[in-house]
Design goal:
By secondary structure, the protein is α/β, with parallel strands linked by helices. It contains 24 helices and 23 strands. The longest helix has 59 residues. The radius of gyration is 54 Å and the shape is elongated. It starts with a helix and ends in a 20-residue tail after the last helix.
Length: 794
């Protein structure tokens, strides 16, 4: 037994040659799969329109939109320095609004195609022989598609109808009124003459275009590359160039909005000051005419020296107070909630200036977000919340500044009253004149200041330039990017190889039958006596005198290997069993008995599968009295149930006899031991053909009378899970000296390279079967026939 296991262990794995032999039968299918995949790839390359990448580059400048810092008008109302965020700019470029502007500018709603025999290609409008003029569309929410077939240089057919229409003829088709204007009559007569013209709603087309445009920044720069894939380079160049122009124009319009908002604020304040200043000037004129005061300075020159400085300070404080009041009124006005607020009107409060600048930046940020997102977006809502919170902070700060100005004005007024006590001698008319003059000076100064700011803002607005520069106009980036012949062929090759490989793997994975010796050796350490190939003959008895067929030699190898399994007993009893019917148990029993008889030993085969006996039928012998008769009859001799097998010397058979109703109990009869004792006296070898151990317990019962047990595993028939039963029997020693014979090995794959150097007998290799036959080492087994029912149900 140890010798068998030692010789078996080196062959526990499959050699590369065996693996190749196992899967070589699938090679034609792999070749067909690869050829089919490559053919499909060729068809796709042959009939797919090539796709090109059209690309252009734009530069996003990082500069103040109103010029360089330090210039005369560089800091108008503290307008923010726009440090463009390239990621935000990329999202603006890819937005539907930008795509819609491009679609509208180029008129891309109209699309033209040339219909070929297989491929339909996009055509640039300038390359069409006619122009599609749409007069009216009744339902602009749905697209329109028309099939045009030109039949002559003056007529065409529409949508497959046989009716001819003239070029320039008004036509009503469905929900559209249109006409086709012939541009190049000579081209109308040329092939191809079939066209498809589509009209797609602007919004739908913008969605598709925004998804096709790809914008990416170049690392380390402020350059954005815009790429558009297209099968018509001319049309792609127009789209990318127009995209860059629309983006530049959009950026320019954003800059204009800032300046226009500032000018609107200044104009509104100038109108208010104009009315107030006119009223003060009329009051001054009426006062002078009524009180006849024309040169009061000569009378009060000595007294006003002390008041000069205080009045200047009062004038400045009141002007600032007025500005604060204007700003408070402007920010409290709901109509100005989305407008920018001037932040440099002469107020010297640093905190207030910082808040005004931050407020303007948030307004611009909200306006930028609304270009790419909806008002309900959390980012927009957070920005609006921040604006309103900052608005309240500014109003509170304005109130504080106003209170401070009022305190300052009160202090200055107090000092002025102290000085005024010194000029009590001056008539009251002179004092009233001073009040009116002071009001006029305040309003005049504020009016002049706003006029100056309006001029500066107008000049800056006129010189506004976009932060966007078209660095490189659109151009095709080279050859087609799709389809990629090399990549497509490689993918097709992998698919062609992978598909059959996956199917083979799936078949192997789902196959639960024993396909190779490795399937057995991985589960159990039970020794394997040998393998028996598929028998092409019609007779069960293969092994005969002078028979040198391949299968006969395999049985001789099994006989040789039995010496390592059988105990040192001159007259062994060998039990043959299997997992279930159909595994060739009776076939193995018959030929194992024959090969023992050919060695000169008197051998008897006991047909003890008393439920389904097959031995006599396989030997071509008629049914007769047998073992069951001997066990149930007291007056029958053992010699009465022993019959010689024709054509094989020293081989005998003890048939089953009638099938009893209680086969399990029959085998428990004490007379069975007497039968075995008598047989051992007459025969050198006893072969017991028992019932399958996986179905009934007969083999376990008979095991106590045997010296060794041969377990039959049929190739590509026995289930892998049943090998575990063999291992249980072997580990628990339920059957004596258990070993395995693999039966019905086919030469067609399945893990056995039958006839190709497989080492039967653990060291007795037999090379290629064809070579062996040509050298007459074995007798020819005859042509390989379809596997017959040689093993029946046993």
């Amino acid at each position: 037994m140890e010798e068998i296991q030692r010789m078996q262990s080196p062959d526990s794995g499959m050699s590369p040659r065996e693996i190749i032999q196992k899967y070589l039968r699938f090679l034609p299918w792999v070749i067909i799969s690869v050829a089919l995949a490559l053919t499909l790839a060729w068809v796709k390359l042959r009939y797919s329109a090539p796709i090109y990448n059209v690309a252009g580059k734009i530069l996003v400048k990082d500069k103040n939109p109103y010029g360089n810092r330090g210039e005369k008008f560089s800091n108008i109302f503290a307008l923010p320095d726009d440090n463009s965020n390239l990621n935000n700019e990329i999202e603006i470029i890819k937005s539907r609004s930008m795509a819609a502007r491009t679609v509208h500018s180029l008129g891309l709603q109209k699309q033209y195609y040339i219909k070929g025999k297989i491929l339909t290609s996009v055509v640039h409008p300038s390359d069409m022989p006619f122009k599609w003029i749409i007069n009216n569309i009744y339902d602009s929410t749905n697209g329109i598609s028309l099939f045009v077939k030109v039949v002559s240089n003056s007529q065409f057919q529409l949508n497959g109808a046989l009716q001819n229409y003239n070029f320039n003829q008004p036509i009503k088709a469905g929900n559209i009124d249109f006409q086709l204007e012939a541009l190049y009559p000579d081209m109308l007569r040329a092939e191809p003459n079939e066209y498809i013209i589509n009209w797609i709603p602007e919004e739908s087309l913008a969605v598709g275009l925004s998804g096709s445009i790809n914008a990416a920044k170049l690392e380390g720069t402020s350059v954005i590359t815009i790429v558009y894939p297209t099968d018509n380079i001319k049309l792609g160049l127009n789209i990318v160039n127009q995209y860059m122009k629309e983006y530049l124009q959009s950026n320019f319009e954003d800059k204009k909005i800032i300046a226009l908002s500032t000018l609107d604020f200044i104009d509104n304040q100038l109108d208010t000051l104009k009315h107030e200043l006119g009223g003060v000037e009329r009051n001054l004129q009426n006062f002078r005419e009524k009180n006849q005061m024309f040169a009061p300075d000569q009378q009060t020159q000595l007294f006003f020296g002390d008041l000069t400085e205080s009045r200047k300070q009062i004038t400045l404080a009141e002007r600032n107070e007025k500005i604060v009041a204007y700003l408070s009124k402007y920010m409290n006005n709901p109509q100005n909630s989305d407008k920018l607020v001037p932040s440099n009107l002469g107020i010297e409060e640093p905190t207030l200036l910082s808040q005004l600048q931050e407020f303007n930046q948030l307004q611009l940020k909200k306006e930028t977000l609304l270009k790419t997102t909806q008002p309900g977006n959390p980012l927009v809502q957070n920005t609006v919340t921040s604006i309103e919170r900052l608005r309240q902070d500014i109003l509170e700060n304005l109130k504080n500044v106003q209170n401070a100005q009022q305190l300052s004005t009160g202090d200055l007024s107090s000092r002025n009253r102290q000085a005024d006590a010194d000029i009590r001698s001056i008539p009251g008319k002179q004092k009233q004149l001073q009040e009116v003059t002071r009001q006029q000076a305040i309003l005049q100064e504020l009016y002049s200041f706003l006029l100056q700011k309006k001029l500066e803002t107008a000049i800056a607005s006129a010189s506004t330039t976009s932060d966007i520069t078209i660095l490189e106009p659109a151009m095709a980036t080279g050859g087609p990017v799709s389809p990629n012949p090399k990549g497509l062929y490689i993918i097709s090759l992998f698919i062609g190889l992978g598909l059959p490989a996956s199917i083979i793997f799936l078949l192997e994975y789902l196959n639960d039958k024993v396909k190779s010796k490795n399937d057995i050796s991985r589960v159990t350490a039970t020794p394997i006596l040998g393998e028996v190939g598929h028998a092409a003959e019609n007779n069960t008895l293969i092994v005969r005198q002078n028979n040198r067929s391949y299968i006969a030699e395999q049985f001789r190898i099994v006989r040789s290997n039995l010496q390592y399994v059988l105990p040192k007993d001159e007259k062994p009893v060998i039990l043959v069993t299997s997992s279930f019917s159909g595994e060739g148990k009776s076939f193995i029993s018959t030929n194992l008995g024959a090969v023992m008889a050919l060695s000169g030993k008197r051998t008897i085969i006991l047909e003890m599968d008393i439920r389904k006996p097959k031995i006599l039928k396989g030997l071509g012998m008629n049914e007769r009295k047998g073992i069951t008769n001997f066990l149930v009859t007291s007056n029958m001799e053992l010699s009465d149930i022993i019959y010689p097998v024709p054509e094989v010397e020293n081989l005998f058979v003890a048939p089953c006899g009638p099938v009893p109703p209680n086969p399990a109990e029959i085998l428990l009869d004490e007379k069975l031991a007497t039968m075995f004792a008598g047989l051992k006296k007459q025969f050198d070898v006893i072969i017991i053909d028992s019932a399958p151990v996986g179905l009934v317990s007969d083999a376990i019962t008979l095991g106590k009378h045997a010296n060794a047990c041969v377990y039959i595993v049929r190739h590509n028939y026995t289930l892998k899970k049943q090998v575990r039963l063999i291992d249980d029997l072997y580990q628990e020693k339920k059957l004596p000296h258990l070993s395995i014979v693999i039966n019905d090995i086919s030469s067609k794959g399945g893990g056995y390279g039958y006839g190709y150097g497989y080492g039967y007998g653990y060291g007795y290799g037999y090379g290629n079967a064809k070579t062996n036959a040509s050298n007459s080492y074995f007798e020819n087994d005859g042509p390989r026939k379809k596997r017959r029912k040689l093993f029946g149900k046993n």
